[in-house]
Amino acid sequence: MLSVIRKNVRLAPYTTLRIGGIARYFADIDREDQLCEALNFAKENDLPVFVLGSGSNVLFADSGFPGVILHPVNKGITFQNPKYGEVLVTAAAGEDWDQFVAQCVARDLAGLECLSGIPGLVGATPIQNVGAYGQEVSETIVSVCVFDRKLEQVIEMTNADCRFGYRTSIFNTTERDRYFVLAVTYRLKHHGAPTIRYADLQKHFADHAAPPTLQDVREAVLKIRKSKGMVIILSDPDCQSAGSFFKNPIVSAEKFAQIEAATVEAVPHFPAANAQVKIPAAWLIEQAGFHKGYTSGRVGISSKHTLAIINRSNATASELVAFVKQIQQQVQERFGIALEPEPVWVGLENQPVVALPPVLPKPEVRLQKIEEKVEATVSLPLPLKPSRRTRKPEHNPLKIERKKWFE
Ligand SMILES: Cc1cc2nc3c(=O)[nH]c(=O)nc-3n(C[C@H](O)[C@H](O)[C@H](O)COP(=O)(O)OP(=O)(O)OC[C@H]3O[C@@H](n4cnc5c(N)ncnc54)[C@H](O)[C@@H]3O)c2cc1C
Question: Considering the entire predicted model, what is its pTM?
Fold first, then answer.
């Protein structure tokens, strides 16, 4: 067996829910040769493979994982300065996301400030198009460097290749499990204005005399997230979660009209793509009878956030799944809406794979040539091949203003 591979590793400590049995094999991946060796080992022994970041968006079965867990630990961040104050920042998959955001904000680079405090590693951000407080990574991702398990080579995927949508990309839909993300490149704006679209942020800065800086916005986001248990604080039981457990459902205008007609109070909603309507999952859950602080044995709902399902104390995956199904069933019965879990279920009866929204044809725009390399803090340990195709990041049609219910 390879030196990078450990046997019989408990998965619970590698997840924020603190749930999950034993992984048969577990490999920390720092370099491409280690990745290839671990993948070959899995192939030769006919074992399944799962890529695990920092486990903030996964739910492992109590039976664990019968194959090889690949855990990226590669580090490195480079800053490159093309024209017009834009900076291309490439971070290795194993970098801690929030520390990376902190570095960008400290360098006065705009584009990620609202994504402060999200747990996880850089490599996981394109998977579900991480988003919060008015920003999504799809707005700044230029390219994603991946190891393609099908082609067995490293390739650079453009933003358009990733087909980002609300909490989706090809990585968690049509091409699930095909790619191992090695590094991600974001296009940030030096001295750019912070994004203040989200209602809570607007309220926070309403009586500020001077325009808020990126650092002000980062601090405000961290403060708001903390008040909702949406940052990881080990001593806080409300934080033993996978963040928001359900996606906000998107329904047709007809379906929304039916719900409105059958409900006494106004239904909070926001416009979504293709004339559809997005309804806050938190509102649906509360209407179905589950409130903040609701408990069901060793699991429950966070006392700070209706969407966060928590492991109150040594809960099992089966207990948590039973509670999730109870919520789904009540919402289904009351509104006829199937709530879709956001975390990835491994070894459990899985949530259905969601289809991607249709891609609208867009004119190809060539990426600006990188003219000047300003600085390289650390070089990436993994070799990056040049881009096959490069396109300007797509405008995200699903970008909406998130208000109170979209927390
Ligand atoms: C308290 C809390 C708050 C949260 N708030 C938000 C939020 O505001 N917005 C939001 O979008 N999410 C949020 N999340 C969810 C989660 O933090 C993000 O989805 C995060 O990007 C997951 O990162 P991770 O490294 O923990 O990935 P993991 O949970 O380990 O993995 C998630 C998925 O990504 C895949 N993956 C991970 N790394 C790689 C890689 N290198 N290559 C290929 N696949 C990979 C895994 O296979 C899995 O399918 C929150 C979670 C918690 C616990």
Answer: 0.86
